[in-house]
Every structure is written in C-alpha cells, then in structure tokens.
Amino acid sequence: MPQITFLLPDGGTQTLEAGDAPTVMHLAIRHDLPGMPAECGGQLACATCMVDVPEDWRGRVPEASPDERDMIEDRIGSLPEGRRLCCQIAVTPALDGLVVRIPERQG
Ligand code: FES
After folding, report:
1. pLDDT tens digits along 15-74
2. What is the pLDDT of residues 59-98, one digit of tens each?
3. How close is the Cα of 21 to the center of ligand 1, in Å?
4. What is the DSSP string of the chain?
5. What is the CATH number of the domain that holds 31?
6. Is the CB of 36 within 6 Å of ligand 1?
7. CB of 28 shorter than 6 A to ligand 1
C-alpha cells in the first residue's frame, strides 16, 4: 500500500496510507487536508488541487498532460517546475514514499 507524505501550508506534515484512493487528490480530500479545495472533484476544471512535486520525484511521477499544464498556467500565470494538479496523479505502487507540498494558495 503506497504511503504519500503531504507537506502542509502551515508547515506541518501528514503521511497517509493511500488505501484505495484513485488519485493523490482523493487521498488529500478524504483526510480533509488544508489548502486543497479541489472544487471540481477531479474533472480537470478548477486547478484548486495544486501541489509541488520535489525534484527527486519529478521523473517518477507520470508527466502532466498539455491540458493540465494549461490549467495551471491559466490559474497562476506561470508553470513552476514540479507544479501539478494532484487529481491528475493516479496512485500506483510506484508512488510509495512520494512527497508533495500543498502550496500556501491555490491561485
Ligand atoms: S480537482 Fe479540479 S482540477 Fe483537480
């Protein structure tokens, strides 16, 4: 069962068992993590599920689609390295140990 660690906007940390969560966003929502409104429920329509993936994980997380990249850029006006919409990151065993940071603001 993959474990995923969230670095929270207030400086705290939560490490969670992914269980049957289909995406990193679903895992965050199920545990009511702060700073993750995920308003569209994973439909790639809100860009309020942003996380930052640290450099050492970027090659191991599947790449963002052009639509995901566009959504982020439209929301914040830039595309920072490692910035992702975590509803688009499917939970797989390969992500065991993943760390993501929830930004202070979702846009
Ligand atoms: S939850 Fe809306 S784009 Fe991810």
Report:
1. 999 999 999 999 999 999 999 999 999 999 999 999 999 999 999 999 999 999 999 999
2. 999 999 999 999 999 999 999 999 999 999 999 999 999 9
3. 15
4. --EEEEE-TTS-EEEEE-TT-SBHHHHHHHTT-TT---TTSSSSSS---EEE--HHHHTTSPPPPHHHHHHHHHHHSS--TTEEEGGGSB--GGGTT-EEE--S---
5. 3.10.20.30
6. no
7. no
Report if pTM > 0.85.
Answer: yes
Structural domain boundaries, residue 14? 3-101
Residue 44, ligand 1, Cβ within 6 A: yes
- B/e letters for 37-76, b = 16+ CB within 10 Å, e = fewer, are ebeeebeeebbbbbbbbeeeeeeebeebeeebeebbeebb
106 lies in some domain: no
d(CA 11, CA 64): 26
Q: What is the count of structural domains for the chain?
A: 1
